[in-house]
């Protein structure tokens, strides 16, 4: 008769069960990538709010009639939707893989293409859903500001 014995090694002692240790450079790269992603999320939303301000308050693109005025709170779901559309597209475009190793013009080009594709995809979704009327000018301004702010960051 054989008896089974439990292994006496704990996960702390077994190197195969431990998470791999990151070098200082890898930790630095991870922090830079995370801070870049967080700043991009912030700048996408800042560009949208600035576009709303420019379109509805300043009147860029023509004055907005009182009956067409829409409060910013009405646009918040669209702002969140735009952010949730652009951020994965930036990931799929490899913008966050090795940001320091890519020339500025290459990164700017990928940013322009990714933002343009994401904006068109988002506007197509809004058009198909026809949930409510929106200011096309606001989205054009948001596109320009998003590209500009992200390229400057």
Describe the structure.
The protein is elongated and about 70 Å long. Helices cover 65% and strands 0% of the residues. The chain is mainly alpha-helical and 153 residues long. 16% of the residues are buried.
What's the total number of strands? 0
Oligomer: single chain
Silhouette:
elongated
Taking pLDDT < 50 over at least 5 consecutive residues as the criterion, the unreliable ranges are: none
The fraction of residues in strands falls at under 5%
The count of helical stretches stands at: 4
Main β-sheet: number of strands, strand sense, barrel status? Answer: none
Mean model confidence by pLDDT: 86
User: For the CA atoms, what is the radius of gyration?
Assistant: 23 Å
N- and C-termini, Cα separation: 70 Å
Class of secondary structure makeup: mainly alpha
SSE layout and pairing:
Layout: H1 24-58, H2 72-92, H3 104-129, H4 136-152
Helix pairs in contact: 1-2, 1-4, 2-3, 3-4
Note the main attributes of this structure:
153 residues, 65% helix, mainly alpha
Summarize the structure.
By secondary structure, this protein is mainly alpha-helical. 65% of the residues lie in helices and 0% in strands.
């Amino acid at each position: 008769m054989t008896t089974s014995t439990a292994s006496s090694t704990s996960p702390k002692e077994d190197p195969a069960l431990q998470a791999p240790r990151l070098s200082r450079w890898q930790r630095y790269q991870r922090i830079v990538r995370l801070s870049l992603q967080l700043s991009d999320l912030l700048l996408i939303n800042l560009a949208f709010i600035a576009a709303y301000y420019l379109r509805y308050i300043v009147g860029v693109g023509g004055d907005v009639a009182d009956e067409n005025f829409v409060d910013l709170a009405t646009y918040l779901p669209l702002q969140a939707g735009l952010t949730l559309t652009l951020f994965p597209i930036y990931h799929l475009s490899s913008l966050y893989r090795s940001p320091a190793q890519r020339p500025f013009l290459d990164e700017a080009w990928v940013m322009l293409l990714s933002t343009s594709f994401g904006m068109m995809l988002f506007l197509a979704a809004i058009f198909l859903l026809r949930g409510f009327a929106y200011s096309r000018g606001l989205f054009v301004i948001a596109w320009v500001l998003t590209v500009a702010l992200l390229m400057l960051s």
